[in-house]
Each structure stands twice: as C-alpha cells, then as structure tokens.
Design goal:
alpha+beta; Nuclear Transport Factor 2, Chain: A; 5 strands; five-stranded mixed sheet
Amino acid sequence: MTTNTDEFALTDDATQMTALYVRAMNAGHVEAVLNLYTEDAVSVWDPEKPISGAEHRAAVEEFMAQRPVMRAELKESYVTGDTALLVVDWEIAVEGSETLTGTGLDVLRLGDDGKWRYAIDNPFGDN
C-alpha cells in the first residue's frame, strides 16, 4: 500500500488528533501511527500492564498486522497550555475477531515544534 506521509503530518490542533489517528490506522501505516506518540508515551491497553517504548512499538506493529478498521468520534476536548485531554468513543473491527469498543481518555502533549502527540493513550478509560 502506497501512502503519502504528508497526509499523516502532525497537527497544531489537538481536536484533530482523533481523526488523524483513525486515518493512519485505517491506512495500515504503522510508522504514521507511532509518530503520533511522544517518545515516552504510555499506552494502557491492559490496565494491569501499561506499555511504552519498544514494547509499545511491537504491540502496535502486531495489532496493525491484523488490518484493523477503526471508527472514532471525539466527544469532549479540553486544552490548557501544552496539555490536552480528549474523550473519544471508538470502535475497532478486525476480520474474524470480536469488534472492540470503548471510551478512551487520551492525554496529549504539545511539542516544541508546536505539534500535538499522545502522551497517555487509555482506550478503556471508562472502565
């Protein structure tokens, strides 16, 4: 699959991050998805075992190999200074598997470059 990396360029508008994440995931663009996170980001896909760094990279690569299809809707957003909180209803379908749904709580950090990135990704924030 050929994709233009510019279509996944980071944004200076925190409220656009959900749509950007969905586009990158649905395109199957692993590097674009990973680029949306800070270097020290934490993902809480399993509340018992938050992951970051190389473990996060491997988990994203493995999950995206299943060709997930994601839909998401930004429900609430709060921005103060260099920090943003997004509340997102989402659904991910993987062929041959149960469809996953949840309400995520995402904390974003504004980088020195003026672009937003996920610092904490908690897709099951309502549990």
